[in-house]
Fold this protein.
Amino acid sequence: MTEPSTGSGIPASIRRHLAQIVQNVGTPAYVYDLAVVRSSFAALRDDLPVGSELFYSLKANPHPQLVAQLVALGARAEVSSIGELAVALAADCPAHHVLYTGPGKTPEEVEEALNRGVRLFSVESVTDRQRLAEACSRTGTTAGYLIRINSPRGSTGGSLRMTGRPSAFGVDHTDIQALDRLLRPLGRVRPVGMHTFCATNIAAPAALAAEFEQSVRTIAAIAGRAGFTPDVLDLGGGFPAPFARPGALPRHPYLKGAVDAVLDTAFPDRRRNGTRVVFESGRALAASAGTLLTTVLDVKRSGDRTFAVLDSGVNVLGGMSGLGRLRSPSIVPVPVDAGTASPESRLTTPVTLVGPLCTPLDVLAPAIDAPYLHPGQVLAVPNTGAYGPTASLLGFLSRTPPAEVVLDGDHIVATGRFELRTQEVTFRD
Ligand SMILES: *Cc1c(COP(=O)(O)O)cnc(C)c1O
C-alpha cells in the first residue's frame, strides 16, 4: 500500500479549520460539514424514482444540526425511539412526516409518539399492532401502519442482513395467518401499506436493484392475495457508503429505471392511485459529512509487532464493529500533516491501531501500512458521519466523550460534547 497523501479524503473545509478545532476542543473530535450533507442528499435524491419520498434514519446520526439540515432539504424522519422523535420534531420535521419503527416498542413510547402527533408506524408483529391499537384507544387517536415484511432475499449483498432468513424484524412473508390479521383494521388503527428493509450497505449496484425488485414483488403478492391496495410502499434502503476510510459515495444511475419498471408492473394503477413510494437511508446521507480527528498517543514494539495507541478507541468509533457494521474490520486514517517523523523512525512493518481502553478488544485496525505514524500526530478518519459516537461504547472506561463540531462550508455553526452522568431516579409510592 502506498502512503496516503497528507489530508487526502478529508473535506477541504475541515482541513482549513483543523488547527482551530484541535486547539479549542482537542481530540477525539467529530467534525461534520453540512455542505457535504447537502451534496449527499442531492445525490441520493437524484438516484431515486421521481416523486418518491426519502426518510432519514436518525439512528445513523441524531446530531440536531445534521437532522435539521436534512429536514430543511425535504427529508422525512424514520425514528425508533422517543429520543430520536424529539430530535426530529425539534428540527422542525412535521409529525406527519415521521415514521416510527422498531421491533420492540413499549406501550408508553407508542402512547408518547401518538401524543406528539405521529400517525404512521411500522408494525412488526400481531402483538406490536395490538399495542398500537390499545395506545390509540387510550389517547383517542387514530393511526395508520405499515406491515413490516420479512421478504425473501433478492441478492447475497449487504453487510448486515435483516431479512431472507429467520429474523426478529417483521412478519415472515410466508406467515399467511399473521398477514391476514394485520391486513384487516383493528379498532382505531388500519393498515396503509407495507415496509421492507432487507440489508444495509449493499455495495453491488445490481444487488441493490435486485433487493428492491424482490421487495416489490413480495409486497405485490401479499397485497394481491388479500385484495389489499397499499397507499404506501416503503422499500427501505441499503444504500452503501464507505465507513472510516477514504472513498467517494457510490452513485446508483440505473436504480430509478429498474425500480420504476418493477413498480409499474406490480402496481399498474399506482400512479393513478397516488401510491406513495418511500425509501430510507442513514449512512448514505450522513457518512461522508463526518471526519473523526484523533491523536496518536504512543507507538511501540512488542515482539515482532508494532502498535500505535490512539486517543479514540471503540468508545469513540466502531463500537458496532464487532456487530458486523464494518465490512472489513479496519479503519484507514489519513495523516493531516506531514508531522515530524524522522526518516529513521519511519515504521517498516504493518501497524496495529488500538484505542486507549484497558481491553485487548480495543482494536481499530489489525494491520495497516502507516510508516508515517508518530506520537503526537493528528490523524483524520474520513467518512465517519454515520454510526460514529452514538453507535460506540461511549460510557466504557468513563473517558471524556468526543467533541462534535459542525461546519457549514467555512463557518463553524455548532460545537458540543456528549455528557455522561447518572441522574437520581425518584420512586413513587
Ligand atoms: C438502520 C435502518 C435504516 C438505515 O440503514 P443505513 O444502512 O444507515 O441506511 C433504515 N431503515 C431501517 C428500518 C433501519 O433499521
Summary: The chain has a mean pLDDT of 91.
